[in-house]
Amino acid sequence: KAGVTQTPRYLIKTRGQQVTLSCSPISGHRSVSWYQQTPGQGLQFLFEYFSETQRNKGNFPGRFSGRQFSNSRSEMNVSTLELGDSALYLCASRDSPSGANVLTFGAGSRLTVL
Amino acid sequence: QKEVEQNSGPLSVPEGAIASLNCTYSDRGSQSFFWYRQYSGKSPELIMFIYSNGDKEDGRFTAQLNKASQYVSLLIRDSQPSDSATYLCALNFGNEKLTFGTGTRLTIIP
Question: A108: which chain B residues are within 8 Å (Cβ-Cβ)?
């Protein structure tokens, strides 16, 4: 069974630009979560999608948005990039958004904002 | 605000010894507890998880819950250099979201 696939793996942007990251979950998983990981803050929850609907949202500004498609693939978008958005963005999938279900992470997309 | 706290380390343990990692949490309603391992430059991978009803052992790893003192531990027996990584604790506070601690960096000294 293929794992969680994230693209692109690395990208460099400049301040003010926008970026779109993609995540394909494990086959059969309908829930996709996004996390931002930085050295100082650790793993911060962005949002979770299930059946094309946003189920949970973290404390990030509106510049961070996401969506999920009917095939469970998900994208997240960050607009008007700031230097502080430089981070590893991790996508994780699970069967459904139950707290008891295990999250499986993708390899991440490392974003550098110059 | 519900929180998960871990000592950032680094925690240094001699090879072959027992490594003990702790995670404290703020909400007695927590139901599920997860331990992830993250190697440098890699993504987190699940080691094990327990529910609020008991401990679990899996090979060299044991997860223990102390509900009264609100902490969960991960014990690694016969520590190996390959166990050197950052260990992340994550909790479900009775809802759907998982909240992660900032992780403890573990170094096994040969």
Answer: 43
Cα B36-A31-B23 angle, rounded to 5 deg: 25
Residues 28-87 of chain B with CB under 8 A from chain A are 31-32, 34, 42-46, 49, 51
Residue range A13-51, pLDDT digits in tens: 999 999 999 999 999 999 999 999 998 788 999 999 999
Residues with Cβ < 8 Å from A39, sequence gap 6 or more?
none
What are the tens digits of pLDDT across the range B39-75?
999 999 999 999 888 899 999 999 999 988 899 999 9
d(C-alpha B93, C-alpha A106), whole Å: 23
Count CB neighbours of A89 within 10 A. 23
Q: Map tokens 């994230």 to a residue.
A: A6
Q: Give the angle subtended at the CA of B26 by the CAs of B23 and B31, to the nearest 5°.
A: 80
Q: How many CB pairs (< 8 A) connect A and B?
A: 54
